[in-house]
């Protein structure tokens, strides 16, 4: 077993023991129906950083995710539009200015704690005693096998009250992707965020 992988499992294990608060187990939660926010991801094994923005709309089963992959020589920027009711994913590569339409076969799932997750406990970010500087969070763990047959460990942390995403971590043998979610706002500021860009309108389905 790879050392970093072993280390991350150990750390996850320690967190679970030190913060377990089983008397206060919340329900597996779902995020609100519509929100927008920024995220920062890094893969500590693959050494990739991603800066992103997400618009999430469970009411109409659609998501828009803008991602900048920060790479040493040339960044790559993708604008992805997931239209589940049309079973379609539009991937707009903003560097090459090309769009691909991909059929989206997986069903819509609400963003939130995955079914059959194990509750890790609740704790506070910041200081519990200083209300204006504290955030109560809940952490959950699940494991699954991905489409490529990799065994994935997933740990996710959500706000206690509204189930907004705070952090998540997907760990396989050759990757450990951490994501931090920030500046979440309720609702969708501008519905046109879910309209395909004109470049995508002209492209054929792959
Ligand atoms: C890539 O994006 C980052 C973050 O926006 C920026 O600081 C950096 O200068 C960009 N790199 C290149 C090569 O354009």
TrEMBL record:
Signal peptide start and end residues: 1-20
A family per Pfam: Ependymin
InterPro entries given in the database record: Ependymin
Key words of the record: Signal
GO BP annotation list: cell-matrix adhesion
The keyword Signal appears for this protein: yes
Keyword Signal: yes
GO MF, any single term: calcium ion binding
GO cellular component, one term: lysosome
The protein's name: Uncharacterized protein
Organism placement in taxonomy: Eukaryota, Metazoa, Spiralia, Gnathifera, Rotifera
């Amino acid at each position: 077993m790879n050392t970093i992988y072993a280390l991350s499992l150990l750390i996850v294990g320690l967190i679970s023991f030190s913060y377990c608060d089983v008397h206060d187990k919340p329900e597996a939660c779902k995020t609100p129906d519509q929100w927008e926010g920024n995220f920062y991801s890094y893969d500590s094994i693959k050494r990739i950083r991603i800066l992103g923005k997400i618009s999430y709309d469970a009411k109409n089963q659609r998501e828009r995710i803008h991602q900048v992959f920060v790479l040493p020589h040339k960044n790559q920027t993708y604008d992805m539009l997931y239209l589940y009711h049309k079973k379609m994913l539009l991937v707009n590569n903003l560097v090459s200015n090309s769009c691909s339409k991909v059929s989206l076969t997986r069903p819509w799932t609400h963003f939130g704690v995955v079914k059959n997750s194990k509750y890790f406990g609740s704790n506070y970010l910041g200081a519990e005693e200083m209300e204006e500087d504290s955030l109560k969070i809940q952490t959950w763990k699940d494991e699954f096998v991905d489409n490529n047959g990799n065994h994935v460990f997933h740990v996710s942390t959500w706000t206690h009250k509204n189930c907004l995403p705070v952090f998540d971590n997907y760990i396989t043998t050759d990757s450990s992707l951490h994501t931090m979610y920030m500046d979440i706002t309720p609702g969708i500021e501008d519905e046109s965020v879910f309209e395909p860009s004109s470049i995508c309108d002209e492209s054929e389905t792959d």
